[in-house]
Amino acid sequence: MTDMNEKYMSAALREAIKGAGRVSPNPLVGALVVKKGNVIGKGYHRLYGQAHAEVNAIASCFENPAGSDLYVNLEPCSHHGKTPPCTDMIIKHKFKRVFIGTVDPSPHSAGKGIEILKKAGIDVFTGICEEKCRVLNAPFFHYLKHGTPLIILKAAVSLDGSLATDSGDSKWITNEKSRKSAHKLRNLYDAVLVGKNTVLKDDLELTARYRHGRNPVRIVAEKDLSLPLDRKIFNNSAASIIITSENISASVETFYNGKGISLVKVSEKAGYLDLEQAFKIIGTKGIRSIMVEGGGTIHNYLLKNRLAQRLNLFIAPKLIGSGKKFFFGSGFEKISDCIDFDIISSKNFDNDIFIDASIRYPD
Ligand SMILES: NC(=O)c1ccc[n+]([C@@H]2O[C@H](COP(=O)([O-])OP(=O)(O)OC[C@H]3O[C@@H](n4cnc5c(N)ncnc54)[C@H](OP(=O)(O)O)[C@@H]3O)[C@@H](O)[C@H]2O)c1
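YS: structure for the whole thing
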């Protein structure tokens, strides 16, 4: 039974991921309807503000779901939001059992949905593939706990950890398959952030260039607004934000807004813009995840200030020598001070290796 539960929950998770890039700030949710060992319906939350996964799964059933089991990676909602409560729908369709991956910690939920289902005589089981469900919605859970978006460091590095050669050349360290996969990551996360030097050096558009890709919001951090506005990051392919100094005047801000660029103004901390302050503001704009695409200076700032939680690293079997390091700046004195990573998954793109890991800071 446990194996079957995991099998069905994994299928629900495969549904959930189909909503990637389209449902934030909501979580990714998938649902499966199983009757007498047969999957009779499945669905996912497709678009923010639209029907929830449970509703789509029930609507897809090719026979009456009464007496069925429902598998869903997040606790069904029990409140009236943009759509009616899913618990009402589950009770109305006379489900026998509901299998849930993770409890929804949102204040309006937090176990209320489970209680309502139980009171209606439905058997409810929680914690099915809980870790996988938690990883899938890491931005959602992180925001509820900390009030800031999940920060993911993404880079393409050589075996010796370089992002670029001494002259700044970085095209290309990894192979084409890795680079295509990186475009898919841009579809997955709400926003991408780069440091000023990366914009100057690489002039990337930072869009998700593959079929059906959705572009993330593009963010650059620069103190003095000296970047030329003809850089691709400011074109109209997607929204652009500049994190900049609080000293920038209202009239300059109005000028930038007129060019379609929003400013997030923050104070400085030890010579750098206070990105924690910026992340709190950006979180209020509905952004739940930010993938940081370099360079080493900004990675260094985020790691030293414990502001990044996840790593998406593409490693090419290449030696660059000194170059610009992924983690650029002064190192740690002792091994016990170093930053560790817990690998969530890894895969090969031909000769390259991709690592998805969570970041563990020392106590
Ligand atoms: N292989 C890869 O995946 C990859 C990815 C990205 C970049 N790269 C390479 O990396 C190189 C650029 O990296 P980089 O280390 O020189 O620069 P960077 O990290 O791109 O930019 C650093 C600059 O960003 C601004 N900044 C604003 N707030 C900051 C903060 N809180 N922390 C840190 N920086 C902040 C600062 O300029 P102000 O003080 O003027 O604001 C700082 O000097 C390029 O050669 C590029 O090709 C490679």
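YS: worth flagging: The pocket of NAP is lined by residues 155-156, 163-164, 168, 170, 173, 194-198, 201-202, 221-224, 272-273, 275, 293-298, 301, 324, 328 (CB under 6 Å).
IM: good catch. Also The first helix runs from residue 2 to 16.
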